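Q: My labmate handed me this sequence with no annotations at all. I'd like to see what the chain might look like in three dimensions before we decide whether it's worth expressing. Could you predict it?
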Amino acid sequence: MEFCSKCGSILVPEKKGKSLVLKCRKCKFTRKKDARNIKLLEEKKRRPSVAIIEKDVVPLPITERECEKCGNKKAYYWLQQTRDADEPPTQFFKCTNTKCKHVWREYK
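A: Here is what I predict for the chain of 108 residues:
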């Protein structure tokens, strides 16, 4: 890396025909440069790692509730406000049987 002798800015390599010059972007000063002495450094940035989460990972609590489709006795459950705020939330259930995965709801 070289700096401009007039203003101190970084000199940028630029082709002029078959020759190479170093040019100041600020004051337009130029200096001839021998292309054999220039090394190109390429900075490679690493991509951030991405976590892949499976669709079927369910960090929900389990309760004793029978699935009406397969007869399994356990289900995941969660509460969700589906109606007005002055009404109780709806309780959803999802069968823990990996082949069934039936979802149903109960209103209180």
